[in-house]
Write a structure and sequence with these properties.
Length: 218
């Protein structure tokens, strides 16, 4: 857990990990997975396979968000999501847009458009030049709708249905777990541009979900 903690966003560094769900105590039920995880964000998904490999994902958004899509598979989440493996080798795979900012440009909000100086205002009147935002300064806090993405496949962070949970999309899934939380598969996906996190098809030995408890309010 200490290794993973060095990867999570800084604002959660003082939070204490809190076990929300484990197949050991709660069984292999996707419905129970959802019922224990809803109302919590972010969450940390940890999977240990029967072969001893360990992988998972940091998920920025409440799993309850899946309900907005109705019965249709709908991806949600933000660019803070990432996937990782701990065994056999430790590696993190962030949102591909963070590593390659040229894939997206920020979309101006209506408020930013209204506040932007027009010709003859501010910049010309006072002789001051507004600083330019670095081209690679991408905020992972924002959801995909705030970016002009070359492909929607680069923003498929997380999804959930009655049949499965999915992390990462586009040309494959970083993680796919079935409704019995028993079998899964992993492969390269466009969102994280990751290799398979373990054997491409695997059996789940243990699945856990951890929440983040504010140390100041605990």
């Amino acid at each position: 857990m200490r290794d993973i903690w060095s990867w999570i966003p800084e604002r959660f560094a003082l939070c204490q990990p809190h076990l929300l769900f484990t197949t050991t105590n709660h069984g292999c039920s996707l419905n129970r997975f959802y019922s224990h995880c809803e109302g919590h964000e972010p969450t940390l998904l940890l999977i240990r396979t029967t072969d001893g490999d360990v992988c998972g994902a940091f998920l920025s958004t409440d799993w309850e968000e899946r309900k907005r899509g109705g019965n249709k598979l709908s991806f949600f989440g933000t660019g803070e999501c990432f996937v990782f493996r701990l065994k056999p080798e430790m590696e993190r795979y962030e949102w591909v847009v963070i590593r390659h900012p040229e894939l997206a440009s920020s979309v101006k909000t209506q408020e930013e458009v209204e506040l932007a100086p027009t010709d003859g205002q501010n910049a010309e009147n006072n002789g001051l030049k507004q600083p330019e935002k670095p081209a690679g300064d991408i905020s992972p806090f924002l959801s995909a709708r705030h970016f002009n993405l070359n492909s929607k496949n680069t923003s498929m962070f997380m999804a959930g249905t009655v049949d499965s949970i999915i992390v990462g999309g586009g040309e494959g899934n970083a993680l796919y777990i079935d409704s019995e939380l028993n079998h899964g598969r992993t492969g390269r996906c466009t969102t994280f541009d990751n290799p398979p996190l373990c054997a491409e098809t695997f059996q789940v030995g243990l699945l856990e979900v951890w929440g983040f408890q504010d140390a100041m309010n605990s």
